[in-house]
């Protein structure tokens, strides 16, 4: 939908969702476990969720590729920014997430993501567009403060070292609440 909006087009998002769903199920070549819902329930939920989304104004980039070097001794980070938009002279970088609530309570990952995006395209504002998977779905825009660069580089260095060593590395997220190493992460920032 954002891509269509970028080109001034409108699309029937629920119909596109249904087509993409059917294609993904047909291409899966494996049994699909739907959890407590059946496939029809999930289709209805997905259609209602995409049906309420309206692309924000001022879109100038969708899935914008970027490359960033955090430090000479670390591999280049490559990625795509979900949404780049402008309001007057203000550049806004946005990530789009689905969630079980109207806003994200654990924002560490998106703070890191937007810090990377900001290195590639320095912006005045950063936000996450949350598609809340509620009985009555809603879309909210949540301001985000990106990580400081030093925190981002330290985290990336730890993750890279862990991956290169074959050791598990810390990744902040919802699972931190029950993790026995959570106090270390909180202490280290």
Can you describe what's shown?
- This protein is α+β, with helices and mostly antiparallel strands and 189 residues long.
- The protein has two domains: 2-52, no CATH class; 57-189, Lambda Exonuclease, Chain A (Alpha-Beta Complex).
- It contains six helices and five strands.
- The protein has helices spanning 2-6, 13-27, 39-52, 108-120, 149-165, 182-188, and strands at residues 59-68, 77-87, 90-99, 125-132, 138-143.
- It has a five-stranded mixed beta sheet, sandwiched between helices.
- α2 (13-27) runs antiparallel to α3 (39-52).
- The chain is globular, with a radius of gyration of 19 Å.
Show the helix and strand layout.
Layout: H1 2-6, H2 13-27, H3 39-52, E1 59-68, E2 77-87, E3 90-99, H4 108-120, E4 125-132, E5 138-143, H5 149-165, H6 182-188
Parallel strand pairs: 3-4
Antiparallel strand pairs: 1-2, 2-3, 4-5
- The number of distinct β-strands equals 5
Query: What is the element string, with H for helices and E for strands?
Result: HHHEEEHEEHH
CATH topology of the largest domain: Lambda Exonuclease, Chain A
Return the structural class. alpha+beta
Number of domains: 2
How many helical stretches? 6
Helix content: 25-40%
Strand order of the largest sheet: 1-2-3-4-5
From the spread of the alpha carbons, the general shape counts as: globular
């Amino acid at each position: 939908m954002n891509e269509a909006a970028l080109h001034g087009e409108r699309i029937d998002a629920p119909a596109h969702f249904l087509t993409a769903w059917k294609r993904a199920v047909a291409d899966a070549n494996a049994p699909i476990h739907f959890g407590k819902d059946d496939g029809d329930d999930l289709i209805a939920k997905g259609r209602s969720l995409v049906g309420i989304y309206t692309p924000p104004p001022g879109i100038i980039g969708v899935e914008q590729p970027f490359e960033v070097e955090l430090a000479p001794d670390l591999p280049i980070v490559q990625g795509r920014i979900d949404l780049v938009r402008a309001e007057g002279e203000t550049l806004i970088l946005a990530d789009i997430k689905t969630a079980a609530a109207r806003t994200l309570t654990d924002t560490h990952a998106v703070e890191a993501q937007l810090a990377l995006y900001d290195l590639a395209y320095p912006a005045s504002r950063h936000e996450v567009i949350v598609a809340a998977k509620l009985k009555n779905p809603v879309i909210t825009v949540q301001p985000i403060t990106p990580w400081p660069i030093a925190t981002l580089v330290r985290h990336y260095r730890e993750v890279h070292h862990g991956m290169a060593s074959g050791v598990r590395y810390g990744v902040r997220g919802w699972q931190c609440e029950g993790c026995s190493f959570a106090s270390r992460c909180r202490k280290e920032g």
